[in-house]
Amino acid sequence: MVRNIHEATEFLQKRGFEKPEVGIILGTGLGQLIDKVSIDAEVSYNHIPNFPTATVEFHKGKLIYGSLGGKKVVVMQGRFHLYEGYTPRDVTFPVRVMHKLGVKHLLVSNAAGAINLNFKKGEIMLIDDHINLQGSSPLAFLGVEHLGERFVDLSAPYDTDLNRKIEKIASENKITLHKGVYASVLGPQLETRAEYRYLKIIGADAVGMSTVPEVIVANHLKLPVAAVSVLTDECDPDHLKPVNIADIIKQAGIAEPNMITLFTELIKQL
């Protein structure tokens, strides 16, 4: 793992990825932020040594380096998921590479379903805590102690200072921003009515299929992280309709400008 991280980092440095300050992971249907980045370099995932390759059709599969909000950033345009057949180590490998490149903060976005029925599709939820229901951990492998402490404390996995700043930005820009608990499931199937009821009972406000592995590794690296969910559907088990992927992507696009504002203004303050 150490060698693989070094090889990928060295490859990117030779292609101009020099001393980025902020890493950004873009979720499903959330690619408009790239239009706000002044791009210096970009590399397809399949050209980076030891990198996985995005297989989901609406994930682009590029690592982008440039400027946003007055800072140098590295942006993952397309992320990896366990449901694609990757291991937790594969999914989180880019976070370790971004950290090795020098990022000091990590910002994560995802598309999620609203379990809390007070939250509506097209709105945004700031993740305050999470529930890992993926049945695995990106830290459960031989030799993990060479990359950081094995038993990582997750009493506050999302950086409180970053979250406070995001809440203030939302208030100043009149953006509806909920705050809640994100449940991460394996997927790729969507949940049953009974599963939605279960998620509500155990305290989830939103559900998705990503984010938690990356956040765990960020904490392993002592990398401050903040994450937001763009709510793309409402998961009411008593009035559940068949999933419409096209509508989910549409809702992500509607809410994304607010997410871009939150991230851009936050980066200016870092």
What does this molecule look like?
Residues 22-268 form the Nucleoside phosphorylase domain. It is an enzyme of class 2 (transferase). GO terms for molecular function: purine-nucleoside phosphorylase activity. Belongs to the PNP/MTAP phosphorylase family. By secondary structure, the chain is of the alpha/beta class. It has a single domain (2-269), classed as Rossmann fold (3-Layer(aba) Sandwich), CATH 3.40.50.1580. Helix content is 31%, strand content 25%. The chain is built from six helices and nine strands; from the N terminus they run H-E-E-E-E-H-E-E-H-E-H-E-H-E-H. It has helices at 2-14, 88-101, 160-172, 193-201, 212-220, 245-269, and strands spanning 22-26, 38-44, 62-68, 71-77, 105-114, 124-133, 177-185, 206-208, 225-234. Strands 5-8-7-6-9 form a five-stranded mixed β-barrel. Helix 3 links the parallel strand 6 and strand 7. The longest helix has 25 residues, at 245-269. The protein is globular, with a radius of gyration of 17 Å.
